[in-house]
Design goal:
Helix content: 10-25%
Number of domains: 1
Largest sheet: 10 strands, mixed
Number of strands: 10
Number of helices: 5
Order of helices and strands: HEEEEHEHEEEEEHH
Low-confidence stretches: none
Shape: globular
Mean pLDDT: 94
Radius of gyration: 16 Å
Structural class: alpha+beta
CATH class: Alpha Beta
Length: 216
């Protein structure tokens, strides 16, 4: 079976980007599933933790098998390496309202990052979180006022299109980029993630990273 070329994958991303919905499909979500991967040389392991959004407490956790990957890291094609391990771990959880992915959503050259791909494939509300900017122009001169005085919100644009926020606590130098994956508005994604920001990564993803490192 012949694998698609990067050019073919680009065209597929452009086509599927039109399927991403940037409005809220779940009212008053109660649970959040955070997922990420850890790569050690040519092996990769995915993990996930389920959280109660009201208490921010952990409800369940799962770690996948360490599997061999032949796909290298290619910027804007993270799904080649991470999609299948993440899908396997996500399917270990029977029910949740929102998915948080360490990977870009709409903040992507074709507005279809890993968080979008997982969200569209699974048809669930999904939020994309990255530690660095994959795409777009971050306007550090005009922070947006989202009614949270302890945080800075710097908009990220693709021309006039708001595709993400760079968010950090006002006491911190580092922050994260947050963008829509699927079936959620950017504002609601911010509202969900903000209570979890203590350090750089939101706590759900930080704790998944710790879980994965302990499993090696």
């Amino acid at each position: 079976m012949q694998h698609p070329t990067l050019e073919q994958l680009k065209l597929l991303q452009i086509k599927r980007a039109s399927l991403v919905k940037e409005k809220d499909y779940v009212k008053n979500p109660e649970t959040l599933l955070a997922v990420s991967v850890l790569q050690i040389q040519q092996k990769i392991r995915a993990g996930g933790i389920l959280f109660d959004l009201k208490s921010r407490s952990q409800l369940d956790s799962q770690v996948g098998k360490l599997t061999t990957t032949s796909s290298p890291y290619i910027s804007s094609f993270l799904s080649l390496r991470n999609k299948q391990p993440l899908l396997q771990i996500i399917r270990k959880f029977s029910n949740f309202d929102v998915l948080m992915v360490e990977g870009a959503g709409k903040q992507h050259p074709r507005h279809y990052g890993l968080a979008c791909e997982l969200g569209v494939d699974l048809d669930i509300p999904t939020i994309g979180i990255t530690k660095s900017s994959l795409y777009g122009i971050t306007d550090f001169s005009q922070p947006h006022d989202l009614g949270e005085p302890n945080f800075d919100f710097f908009p990220v644009f693709d021309e006039d299109y708001l595709i993400a926020y760079f968010i950090k606590k006002i006491t911190n130098k580092q922050g994260i980029f947050l963008s829509v994956g699927h079936k959620i508005s950017l504002q609601t994604a911010v509202d969900i993630v903000l209570p979890f920001i203590v350090y750089k990564l939101p706590e759900p993803l930080r704790l998944v990273k710790i879980l994965l490192k302990r499993s090696t």
